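Incident log, structure service

09:12 report received: a user says their structure output differs between two submissions of the same chain.
09:20 pulled the input from the user's history:
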Amino acid sequence: MRRGPVRPATDAAAATSAFADVAVPPVGPAEVPPARQQLRTEFAFELPRGYVDDMGTVHREGVMRLATARDELIPLQDVRVQQNPAYLSVVLLGRVITQLGTVAHMHDGVVENMFASDLAFLQDFYRQVNAEGHTRAGVSCPHCEQPFEVELGGSRLGES
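09:34 re-ran on a clean worker, output below:
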């Protein structure tokens, strides 16, 4: 271990006095940086009608995750999508919906058997979550025309 020469206390005192003319701002409470915003990757939703499984159980509450580039690219290789481009949203939603009620395994076959109104809801929800990064929409009051936002995630059709 290498040690430097030991300096006498007078050197420290001289260094301190050399900066005596420098104005030092008063020390106050430490400025706290703003809290780091967590990236929200999953969004809860409630289907307007609900998916009815083979046993007759209706599943309405679910969770959709943010889509990745891979989620949007892989369905393009699917033969069903190549034959019918409208099928893209079915395959894509089957990938990004991580939970739907008590459905054990979520896949595009579940989405394929949803009511058209639920499919349209999920397509809009997907666009909101992935394109804009949130599930709020700007609207205007039909009576006073005052603008405000409504939360689309987890709300039922027609409710604000």
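09:41 both user submissions now match this output. Likely a transient worker issue. Closing.
09:42 reviewer note: The first strand starts at residue 42 and ends at 52. The two ends are 70 Å apart (CA to CA).
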